[in-house]
Amino acid sequence: MGQTLTSKREKNALVWFGQNWIFLFLLFLVILFSFVGRGFFSPKTLNNILISSSPALLLAAGEAFVIITGGIDLSVGFVRGLISVLSAIVMRDLYALGYSPAFAISVGIIVGLGVGLLPGLVNGILVAKFRVPPFIATLGMYGIANGFALRLSQGFPISFVPPQAREIGNGFIAYWFPGKGISFFAPPEGISGAEVRHIVGIIPYSILIAGVIIAVFSFILTRTQFGQHTYAIGGSIDAARRAGILVDRHLIKVYMISSFFAALAGVLSVLVFGNGAPTQFASSLELFAVAAVVIGGASLMGGKGSLTKTAVGVFILSVLEIGFLMAGVFPFYRYIAVGAVLVFAVIIDQVMPELVYE
User: Fold this and answer.
1) Any idea of the CA torsion for 108, 109, 110, 112, to the nearest 10 degrees?
2) Residues in the chain with pLDDT < 50?
């Protein structure tokens, strides 16, 4: 009897570890870099991680939808670059023509998000209707999106967007100045230039925007029929067809969601960095997104995945990057660390497949 209870406790502990190891690992990284990286555990560093991670969160969330269906979208990184360039051009030109910053920014965002649906529509039709393997279909869009981005930008960042754009991307819900209290939506008034560095931002707009969007789509994925059909297609596409699911139409929607999230990431990157830039080949944003999804417990075979854990995967990769930088570690070690974490996540998926997803 005692042996049975012990075995049950061990199994429960294993189940708990399989479901929550990424949260523990993220906590471990934060504690580790707090000791080895000077100034890592500070509000400014935390805000830098949150702001820089915001576009990546959106990119990975869109990729998660596709991977759950058993596919892959290699075009997301370059779709982000294309929409970043396009949105920045619209904002810049309208602002230069004398339109208000609010109008220029709003139209740039709308145009970017609208055009951002087209790559996903094409990818979805190729995959669902013409039975082109997702790897090939999205690899083709990878090149097309990058070509258009380079043509529009001539290979250079698009600058001179309304300055208010960057204020949005780098603003905070609240600002705290020690000894002078908290102000909302704008830094406290009457602060001298030397005192500005003591102001602490609370909740960046960028992470709030990304968080709200991901929360909405997480609800769709876990609590609606659309989400159930997404998991069903990833589990077995033939069984999904026999169950009456309109698989082709659903796959087109999923690839459009992925492209839409990439467009959101592109627009948000304009707001964060204050310019629109084509994606560099060396950036490997699509691989970053795939790695975050897999580290978050999704299976490349389909049928499993979570936007919440995908977000944790993004933060793990971001903390590794900034932590190594602040600790003075050579950049190539970051790639080794990311590869090791990715391999470990795949091992967890293979050895304990029933544990890594709730």
Assistant:
1) 80
2) 355-358
